[in-house]
Amino acid sequence: ANIILTVGTSATQFAKDNFGDIPIVFSGVLYPALSGFIETPAHPGGNITGASLDIPLDVQFSYFKQIVPNMKRIGVLYTESTAPLIPSAKVIVQQLGLTLVPRMISEPKEIPSALDSLANVTQGLWSVADPVLFDEQSTRYILKTTLRKMIPFMGFSRHVVESGALFALDFDHKAIGFQAGQIINELIAGKDFSELKVTSTDVIYFHFNEKTAKHIKAVIPPDL
Q1: For the chain, which ranges sit under pLDDT 50?
Q2: What stretches of 17-175 adopt beta strand conformation (E)?
Q3: Looking at residue 193, what is its pLDDT?
Q4: Do 38 and 48 form a contact (C-beta atoms < 8 A)?
Q5: DSSP codes, 176-204
Q6: Contact at 8 Å (CB) between 89 and 203?
Q7: Under 8 Å CB-to-CB from 186, ≥6 apart: which residues?
Q8: Strand blocks (E) in the chain
Q9: Residues 8, 55: contact at Cβ < 8 Å?
Q10: Which helix H or strand E contains 142, and what residues bound it?
């Protein structure tokens, strides 16, 4: 093959491990830098680039600011696996005139105290798709606590919204496929591999939970 297209993290890992000398274009991968597939989205390095599932941080926080206009400080829980996301998030939040308040979780029993401390100093809770932190039991606890404490909680997918989070932004798989196809077309046309940046989601769906909004007295702007 001249080019390998992968769909999903497992397929991309397999291709990375077995085809070191063939250009690889991935699609449907969340946090490709954290997975070790690329160095950075702007400069992927090696023989891998592609279309990620990442929604730009400035877009995420801009939506949050629209929904909670009086927000000054945003809380977030994370673990060691998602720690590399926090520094860039702090920068983006600061550019929007806000402050990010992170709390690292080493084990599930730390979640209650971390949530209590964030509830006292923030006006909203942002989330990252951290499989270590958001297992079934912890997710249920976080959702119940944010509802009880009337904290606007931004989930990382529509499924978390269906379970009780106030809102989330989600991606379109078909649009991700188009992006990967465009990258492959550029390669076929002769573009240098080093010039191909990793793309982020460009078609975004907004989901919100009307019942949660009423319960915590949050007003979703009409244009959303």
Answers
A1: none
A2: 24-29, 48-52, 73-78, 99-104, 125-126, 167-171
A3: 87
A4: yes
A5: HHHHHHHHHHHHHTT--GGG-PPB---SE
A6: no
A7: 196
A8: 4-7, 24-29, 48-52, 73-78, 99-104, 125-126, 167-171, 204-208
A9: no
A10: helix 136-148
CB atoms within 10 A of CB 185: 10
Query: Which tokens belong to 178?
Result: 């188009």
CB-based contact 134:106 (threshold 8 Å): no
Whole-angstrom Cα Rg for the chain:
19
Instruction: Please count the helices (runs of H) and the strands (runs of E) in the chain.
Output: 8, 8
- Chain-centroid distance, C-alpha 113: 24
Q: What does the chain come to in residues?
A: 224
* pLDDT at residue 194, rounded to an integer: 84
The span from the CA of 63 to the CA of 169, in Å, is: 9
Q: Where do we find the tokens 């891998």?
A: 48
- What are 118's two structure tokens? 């964030």
Question: If we measure between CA atoms, which residue out of 200, 197, 174 comes closest to residue 186?
Answer: 197
